[in-house]
Sequence to fold (375 residues):
Amino acid sequence: MPLTEIGSSDRLLAELRGWVEQETPTTDAVAVNRLMDRCQAELASVGGAIERIPGRDGYGDTLVCRAPGEGAPVVVAGHLDTVWDHGTLASSMPYRVDGAKASGPGIYDMKSGSFMAFHSVREILRQKIATRRPIVLLLTPDEEVGSPTSRAPIEAAARGARAVLIPEPAGQGGACVTARKGVGRFDIAVRGVSAHAGGNWSEGRSAVVALAEIILKIHAMTDLAAGITTNVAPIQGGTRPNVIPPEARCEVDLRVPTIELGERMEAAILGLAYERDGIAVTVTGGMNRPPFAETPAIRALYEHAKVLAKRHGYELPAQHRGGGSDGNFTAAIGVPTLDGLGCTGAGAHAPHEHILWQDLTPRCATLCALIEEIE
Fold:
């Protein structure tokens, strides 16, 4: 076990319940900040050096807590926002414990992991445990929409760090993450010419038809062998069946395994814009999370974590994951980053979201021991 006393899974779950029952949709800065306030008060009360970065653009604040030590810091970053709207607890996903599963909105992605990070740092400070390096804990408000306001503080904290630990949810079999695909997001808007669909059909230019042609081109860009995937959703267009649609639009998700492929695919999607024969297509966006590639330093960090996990009674496989996280930002600037260190479970962004709550203590012990021991 780590030098820090973690406590039982029952104890951790009891406090985590309060986090889950405080709904924090990304779009409600006030709600996110209420949970941020609780974390700040707890960390300050045990001597954490607190920096609160005010939110902007409709998002909540970013909380930075520092603990003393010598040398380059170990950075731990988790987000408090979830994809679930207010009222989800009352309407469809009440907090509940059913045997080995604890369920509720955001419990798996990623309130349990962020709580484990918060709890580890709080207890290191409370118990006055000497770590080998300083600690920087970040709790952020907007990861679920691509971290538009927290990316800069995360990258600033990571520059010069010894390592970054990301307690995003564990994968299948409890796997942590040593690589992730890069993520691109694009918006496509099409302007056509409206006309009566019966009497003046030839005078119209259908924005929906033009968009459909573009969607098929984007779909054809998927190359599973190369690790490239595209997805188009949502789609909007048209007003009534008897009106040639003058407008249509869609969003595009792109996933790529390397920076080079990201640059190539970004250029290809942006290159779909055109204006001719009454149709104008505008494409905006680009790569918003760079690829997170495994390196020898990341592999060494994983091997350390694997030994610690064994000490705490479980196996820790590693995986490469298609979804992005804030670890993409830190790995891309060359800092060894280990991700997926959160709790086991399933159902991220889905109605069956849950954690295997009895794993809270052993998973938290591994995270805390890494924070203590990284040299």
Observations:
- The first helix runs from residue 9 to 20.
- The chain has a mean pLDDT of 97.
